């Protein structure tokens, strides 16, 4: 098998396509969560703590001198990233919780017993015929 045909067989497998779709949807979901955190959650939270914007929180370790830039410990950006992570983790937790609940409900529903196979039906008919013949005087 040539390298190209092996790659083609690998690339069109369902798992690879599913993974690619998951990555694309995950990237889009990340943008949604970033917007939610930055535009919806953080402004009221900043207002509650006195109008402070987390991303602006920083400590200047060394002031700018001449052409050199200031050395800044931007811990507010770290706090913002931690809050983003917590919200994403919680959203994923809630999604998995819903999926697990749906799986449990599906599993709890009693499954209909499978229909007997053709062999089982034939054996049942033979049994009934033999029993009827044996029961006759």
UniProtKB/TrEMBL annotation:
- Protein known as: Large-conductance mechanosensitive channel
**Where is it localised?**
Cell inner membrane; Cell membrane
Give a short account of what the protein does. Answer: Channel that opens in response to stretch forces in the membrane lipid bilayer. May participate in the regulation of osmotic pressure changes within the cell.
In which broad location class does this protein mainly occur, judging by the first location in its UniProt entry? Answer: membrane
User: By its UniProt entry, which InterPro entries does this protein fall under?
Assistant: Mechanosensitive_channel_CS, MS_channel, MSC/AndL, MscL_channel
Superkingdom:
Bacteria
Q: Where are the transmembrane segments?
A: 16-37, 78-96
Which range is the signal sequence, renumbered to this chain? Answer: none
Q: How does it sit in the membrane?
A: Multi-pass membrane protein
One Pfam family it belongs to: MscL
Name the source organism.
Pseudomonas fluvialis
- Could you tell me which PANTHER family the record lists for this protein? LARGE-CONDUCTANCE MECHANOSENSITIVE CHANNEL, MECHANOSENSITIVE CHANNEL MSCL
UniProt subunit comment: Homopentamer.
Q: Which UniProt keywords apply?
A: Cell inner membrane, Cell membrane, Ion channel, Ion transport, Membrane, Transmembrane, Transmembrane helix, Transport
């Amino acid at each position: 098998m040539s390298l190209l045909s092996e790659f083609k067989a690998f690339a069109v497998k369902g798992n690879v396509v599913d993974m690619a779709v998951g990555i694309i949807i995950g990237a889009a979901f990340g943008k949604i969560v970033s917007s939610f955190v930055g535009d919806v959650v953080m402004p009221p939270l900043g207002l509650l703590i006195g109008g402070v914007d987390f991303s602006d929180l920083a400590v200047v370790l060394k002031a700018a001198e001449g052409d050199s830039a200031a050395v800044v410990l931007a811990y507010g950006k770290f706090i913002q990233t931690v809050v983003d992570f917590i919200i994403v983790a919680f959203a994923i937790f809630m999604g998995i919780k819903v999926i697990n609940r749906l799986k449990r409900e599906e599993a709890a529903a009693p499954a209909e017993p499978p229909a007997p196979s053709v062999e089982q039906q034939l054996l049942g008919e033979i049994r009934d015929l033999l029993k009827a013949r044996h029961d006759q005087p």
